[in-house]
């Protein structure tokens, strides 16, 4: 079966870490590079987390550091969800894995220039790197197969009443990506809130044993502790892994093609995504927005990932 060529732009981040594990474990993924954005924590920490994850599980991959702040705003981070380090209680082994000596933007350009086939770009953090890339290298847009993005919501936000974190951190960047003309698959909170892991399932993941199991357990447990404290829930959504799960098996999901935009001006609504399910604006439909997930299939994929990486 043909492999799926992909660049992953991420801000690890507990659920970003699970997304990376899903990609690392699959022999169907052809990961061309990992690029890192600021978001859940500052750029030095997200980069260090990504570097250690790559070093532990896929050291042959290229990895590069991206922008340290959003296009226009100061950075907003989420240490209350992901811990000060960005990976909560996860302890990753030391590694001598080196970053590429070029920026994330340059690495994306280099990979696309050299590629004879179109490449998917998965984005699991704020979209600053990708927006800058699109502005600097517009001629390489045609080399992108599609963007698979975790971000946005039509069911209320998790930072403000209407804005989801990844969009809120850099809505101007999201606006550039949404208007790029590149096809988009969006995993908003609408679907990712249904992609939850229960405490019992977390126990089963822990029982698999080995490094991948410890990392997955630590990452999910850190997010679960936050969910317990703030929302009194004993299950936690795994937002970012939905992107990789979709690429690996789109049949796990249902969605609708819609016009997707973002609010940049609202006094209370900055960073709200406009997901025009009813086509009220009559605009061109630029995204497939995922709304439903086969949760049992998703959990099986996470468990299989941990087992594969431990082999
Ligand atoms: C998104 O925000 C981050 O905290 C997560 O890593 C995910 O990408 C969910 O709103
Ligand atoms: Ca993320």
Class per helix and strand makeup: alpha/beta
* Low-confidence spans: none
Beta strands, count: 11
**CATH class bucket:** Alpha Beta
Question: For the report, how would you describe the main beta sheet?
Answer: 9 strands, mixed
Distinct ligands, ions and cofactors found in the model: beta-D-ribofuranose, calcium ion
Tell me the CATH superfamily: Ribonucleoside hydrolase-like
Q: Identify the strand order in the major beta sheet.
A: 3-2-1-4-5-6-11-9-10
List keywords for this structure.
single chain, 311 residues, alpha/beta, Inosine-uridine Nucleoside N-ribohydrolase, Chain A, nine-stranded mixed beta sheet, two-stranded antiparallel sheet, 12 helices, 39% helix, globular, binds beta-D-ribofuranose, binds calcium ion
3D structure, described in words:
The protein has 311 residues and is of the alpha/beta class. The chain has one domain (4-309): Alpha-Beta Complex (Inosine-uridine Nucleoside N-ribohydrolase, Chain A). The protein is built from twelve helices and eleven strands. It has helices spanning 14-25, 43-57, 79-82, 104-114, 128-136, 165-169, 171-178, 189-192, 199-207, 211-231, 241-248, 295-309, and strands at residues 4-10, 29-36, 63-65, 119-123, 144-150, 184-187, 196-198, 235-237, 253-262, 273-276, 287-293. The strands form two sheets. The chain has a nine-stranded mixed sheet, sandwiched between helices. A two-stranded antiparallel sheet has the order 7-8. Helix 1 (14-25) packs parallel to helix 11 and helix 1 crosses helix 12 (295-309). It is globular and about 50 Å long. The model has no long low-confidence stretch (mean pLDDT 97). The structure holds beta-D-ribofuranose (BDR) and calcium ion. Beta-D-ribofuranose (BDR) binds at residues 13, 15-16, 40, 78, 81, 124-125, 150, 158, 164-166, 239-240. Beta-D-ribofuranose is lined by residues 13, 15-16, 40, 78, 81, 124-125, 150, 158, 164-166, 239-240.
């Amino acid at each position: 079966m043909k492999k799926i060529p992909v660049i992953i732009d991420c801000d690890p981040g507990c659920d970003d870490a699970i997304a990376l594990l899903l990609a690392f474990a699959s022999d169907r993924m052809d990961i061309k590079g990992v690029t890192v954005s600021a978001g859940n924590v500052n750029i030095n920490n997200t980069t260090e987390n990504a570097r250690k994850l790559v070093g532990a599980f896929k050291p042959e991959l290229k990895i590069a550091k991206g922008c340290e702040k959003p296009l226009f705003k100061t950075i907003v981070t989420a240490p209350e969800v992901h811990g000060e380090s960005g990976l909560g209680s996860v302890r990753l082994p030391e590694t001598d894995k080196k970053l590429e000596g070029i920026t994330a933007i340059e690495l994306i350009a280099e990979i696309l220039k050299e590629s004879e086939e179109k490449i998917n770009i998965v984005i699991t953090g704020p979209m600053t790197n990708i927006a800058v890339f699109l502005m600097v290298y517009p001629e390489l847009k045609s080399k992108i197969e599609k963007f698979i993005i975790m971000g946005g919501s039509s069911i209320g936000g998790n930072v403000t009443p209407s804005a989801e974190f990844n969009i809120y951190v850099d809505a101007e960047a999201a606006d550039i990506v949404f208007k790029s003309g590149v096809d988009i698959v969006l995993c908003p909170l609408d679907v990712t809130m249904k992609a939850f892991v229960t405490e019992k399932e977390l126990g089963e993941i822990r029982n698999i044993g080995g490094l991948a199991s410890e990392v997955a357990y630590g990452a999910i447990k850190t997010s679960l502790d936050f969910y317990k404290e703030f929302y009194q829930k004993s299950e936690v959504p795994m937002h970012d892994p939905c992107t990789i799960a979709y690429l690996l098996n789109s049949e796990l999901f249902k969605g609708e093609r819609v016009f997707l935009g973002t609010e940049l001006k609202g006094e209370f609504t900055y960073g709200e995504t406009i997901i025009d399910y009813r086509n009220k604006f009559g605009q061109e439909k630029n995204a497939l927005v995922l709304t439903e997930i086969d949760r049992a299939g998703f959990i099986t994929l996470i468990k299989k990932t941990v087992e594969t990486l431990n082999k």
